[in-house]
Amino acid sequence: MAPAIGEFEWCELINNKRNNFNRMKIEIWSDVMCPFCYIGKRNFETALEQFGDKNKLEVVWKSFQLDPTLPEVQNGSYTEHLMDSKGMPRKQVEGMLGNVTQMAKNVGLEYDFDKSVMVNSFKSHRLLQLSKTRGLGDATEERLFRAFFTEGKNIADDETLVELGKEVGLNETEIRNALTDEKYSDMVKQDIQEARSIGVSGVPFFVFNRKYAVSGAQPPQAFLQTLEKSFGEWREANPEIKIEVTKGQSCSIDGVCE
Question: 131 and 165 in contact (C-beta within 8 Å)?
């Protein structure tokens, strides 16, 4: 059974669907703890800036968990987590993280893995799901990335998530509700199950119009090429509607009649 939806949420949903009418959808599966997801986001945004029809795109962020077994209480550093989970020696892990830090710097991001708090990311995805219903998915994804990789904030802590959510424009009451309401938990699980059904095994994973995909933190040109190809095909199947209007007296949706 579908989760109940409140009157305000219903209005928001209708508005979001109206705003996204006749737009090509791009879905991005990501985990806030994935360093390549943040880098991929920046490269994708660089491609968008070069794409002339970006106002005809609907970008949807999707939940994914790289390690759902992590506890909500920190039990080791980012380095120690990789040493344990991958069976790699400290020196190799430190070298790898150093390379990733430089990759991030090259696209204008600042990573500090020594500060990153390794905890379960599920609650942060609950916040993302709420944000998507308010048209704030991208802003929330960005804020969570910066909180985790740059500021060393605990993304499994309720109070931290409340503050982060308020920063992007969400209401405190609805944030706290999203952190406990099973509706948002189900939305996270649905995204993860959907990823499995289309063969997503790692993130970031970008899907364009459910026809083409870009996997990983590819350079901007790779995103741009896929954008142009997928959008060209989408536009051919969804031609822009242009109506010649003869104006007369009428009433607008805000109740003004003239």
Answer: yes
Q: How far is CA 192 from CA 61, 62, 105, 203, 209, in A?
A: 12, 8, 29, 11, 18
User: Which amino acid type is present at position 66?
Assistant: L
Tokens 């985990």 -> residue: 31
DSSP 8-state assignment for residue 56? G
Q: How far is Cα 8 from Cα 224, in angstroms, rounded to an integer?
A: 37
pLDDT, one tens digit for every residue, the chain (258 residues): 444 455 555 555 444 444 445 899 999 999 999 999 999 999 999 999 999 999 999 999 999 999 999 999 998 899 999 999 999 999 999 999 999 999 999 999 999 999 999 999 999 999 999 999 999 999 999 999 999 999 999 999 999 999 999 999 999 999 999 999 999 999 999 999 999 999 998 999 999 999 999 999 999 999 999 999 999 999 999 987 777 778 877 877 667 777
For the chain, which residues make up each domain, given as ranges?
A: 35-64+200-230
Q: What are phi and psi of 74, to 5 degrees?
A: -60, 135
> φ, ψ for residue 99 (rounded to 5)?
-65, -40
